[in-house]
Amino acid sequence: MAMDIAKSPPRSFWRHQRGWLALAIGVTVLAAVAVTVLGAGRAAPRVARSELWIDAATRGPGQTLILQLRNPELDAALDRAHAALA
Predict the structure, then answer these.
(1) Label partner for 25 (CA 20 to 30 A): which of 2, 9, 52, 56?
(2) Domains identified in the chain, total number
(3) Residue 2 lies in a domain
(4) Which of 36, 43, 69 is nearest to 55 (CA)?
(5) Please, are residues 22 and 28 in contact by the beta-carbon 8 Å criterion?
(6) How does the average pLDDT of the chain come out, rounded?
(7) For this UniProt entry, which segments traverse the membrane (predicted)?
(8) Average pLDDT over residues 68-80
């Protein structure tokens, strides 16, 4: 007695195409993101270079590093706070 072997139905052409189409769209989106990120270049500065004080740290007497940061707004706020407490 001979038996036939059951074969699975062939895959639909459109199902096969959908997988490749999804892959192609994914690769295209990934390439577009990569080109955008890598081709963006450096960000524009938010402050003009002439408005900045750029200098090197200097050493004071006895090889002591002098580092002094001043914020006039913070100093004024601290002075008001000290006056309020006094």
Answers:
(1) 9
(2) 1
(3) no
(4) 69
(5) no
(6) 80
(7) 20-40
(8) 83
- With contact defined as beta carbons under 8 Å apart, do 60 and 68 qualify? no
Amino acid at 64: T
- The phi, psi pair for 66, rounded to 5°, reads -100, 115
Task: Note the residue count of the chain.
Answer: 86
Structure token pair of residue 39:
């081709």
Domain ranges, residue 67 = 58-85
Domain-embedded: residue 32:
no
- CB of 65 closer than 8 Å to CB of 59: yes
pLDDT at 15 over 80: no
The pTM for the full model equals 0.36
**Which residue intervals of 1-86 are DSSP H helices?**
13-38, 72-85
